[in-house]
Specification:
6-stranded mixed β-sheet, alpha/beta, single chain, 5-stranded mixed β-sheet, globular, 45% helix
């Protein structure tokens, strides 16, 4: 067919084996059902993608569908065309109440509430969730059983586990580890009901002030510092060093690892390769009355503004197709991403996937959906939303490195970090007003100044593990 309507789709290539192959196959499947369209999927380095989209927009050729990392959600909302109009339009408003588009059922009302709320502004779903992850704790059950302890559900129980593991003869060198990455600060704050930014973490109004030295932040930082000082928490000295972090668990140098649900398949691989039993649980909560909730990470798909109706409908239909029950369920199976809709979760239950892989239920339950008891709902504390989020993460992780590696005083060092992060937010706001978000700093999604890209191949190498005699 020659007169096909092209739909350019730029996505983040997350480098997992077969990741882009699966997306290209889905594009071909959509074309087969809708031969009047040509789906042009381009996988790009996720660290550079938002900058490349801005460059394409400057030249008047942005993709119809663009994937943005969650950390640049504010930048996507603020981005402007050279003429000064919004670069993207609301997915919900473009759907305009329709229940199907080109025969593809609309899934907006089926999206998990916590996920939908995260990408909504004043109740309007501005972008279509794609990749969704949450934070979990992973344990070497073989070692925990030897130590006579179970998987911790609170920060205090983490200390108990670490002390029991330290008492083992020929046990791991450390009890617990996690990467020095902004996600852990955000999750720790959310669990306490704390916030990084004013105006409801940037969700009841535009964030204007940041606070990296709040009571909740210092509670987390000082607790982490003490665990490290007592020899219980492994810190590799690198930021963020995901590779070294997972390798320590695979080599059984630690009994616990806190990390993303995205790592679930790889953590299972690590346990299998090294010959120990794995156990997994929700992110441990602060001791006492937990007032907070959870954050999510991942990506969402944005719809270019100003498309003709035929192109816009093709782009919207493709978004619905990607998140239909079968495709969303398969995405979870392939990459352990949270099934983004209720229907995809139910499909996995009906097919017996969760019975065979019970740990894969945990992220959905932690986000307030499909709880073991109680009502489905949105966690009471959602992730922060503000400009140059990645820059603020850089600031807090460097501050933490100073605390752990150079004995900096937490309150003093994080007060300095607050001032530095505030200057980055102020610079972002100036770029927004002057340029419609053009500067590379405003569009960065990660920082990792001296680190190489963290690839799927590196993950597979890191989880080979060493069996213990």
């Amino acid at each position: 067919m020659t007169d096909r309507t092209p739909i350019d789709v730029w996505v983040a290539d997350l480098t997992f084996p077969g990741y882009m192959d699966r997306l290209h196959a889905l594009g071909a499947e959509f074309e087969k059902a809708h031969p009047e369209y040509e789906i042009n999927i381009e996988g790009r380095d996720f660290r550079l993608l938002s900058q490349q989209i801005a460059e394409a927009a400057e030249q008047g050729r942005p993709p119809a569908v663009a994937e943005y990392y969650f950390a640049v959600t504010q930048a996507a909302r603020d981005s402007r065309t050279p003429e000064g109009g919004p670069l993207f339009t609301s997915v919900q408003k473009a759907i305009a109440g329709r229940t199907e588009i080109l025969g593809e059922p609309v899934v907006l009302d089926d999206i998990l509430p916590a996920v939908r709320e995260h990408y909504s502004l004043d109740g309007d779903l501005t972008s279509m969730p794609a990749v969704v992850t949450a934070m979990l704790v992973y344990g070497n059950k073989t070692v925990l059983d030897r130590a006579g302890v179970g998987l911790p559900s609170t920060w205090g129980e983490i200390e108990t586990v670490c002390q029991a593991v330290a008492a083992l003869e020929d046990g791991p060198s450390h009890g617990v580890t996690w990467a020095n990455h902004g996600l852990f600060f955000q999750q720790a704050l959310a669990a306490q009901g704390g916030e990084l930014a004013d105006n409801g973490n940037g969700r009841t109004g535009r964030a204007t002030r940041l606070d990296l030295a709040s009571k909740e932040m210092l509670t987390w930082v000082e607790w982490w510092q003490r665990l490290h000082r007592e020899g219980h928490c492994l810190y590799t000295g690198k930021i963020p060093d995901w590779e070294g972090n997972i390798k320590a668990f695979a080599d059984q140098d630690v009994a616990l690892r806190i990390t993303s649900s995205n790592d679930l398949n790889y953590m299972e691989m690590a346990a299998g390769n090294a010959g120990f039993e794995l156990t997994v649980g929700p992110f441990p909560q602060p001791d006492g009355d937990a007032a907070g909730g959870n954050i999510i990470a991942g990506t969402s798909l944005w719809l270019a503004d100003g498309l003709d109706q035929v192109t816009q409908d093709g782009a919207l239909a493709f978004m619905q197709f990607l998140n239909n029950p079968r495709n969303a369920a398969d995405r979870h199976i392939a990459s352990s991403f949270v099934p983004v809709t209720r229907s995809s979760y139910r499909l996995l239950e009906e097919e017996g996937w969760f019975d065979a892989h019970p740990f894969h239920r945990l992220a959905s339950r932690q986000l307030g959906s499909y709880p073991q008891g109680g009502k489905e709902g949105v966690p009471p504390c959602r992730g922060a939303l503000f400009g140059d989020f990645a820059g603020a993460q850089d600031v807090m992780t460097r501050a933490m490195d100073d605390v752990l590696s150079r004995s900096a005083v937490p309150a003093e060092r994080f007060a300095e970090a607050t001032a530095e992060a505030q200057s980055l937010l102020d610079a972002y706001e100036k770029d927004r007003l002057d340029n419609g978000v053009r500067n590379a700093e405003s569009l960065r999604v990660e920082y990792f100044r001296d680190a190489e890209a963290y690839t799927g191949a590196q993950l597979e190498d890191a989880v080979k593990g060493t069996p213990k005699k």
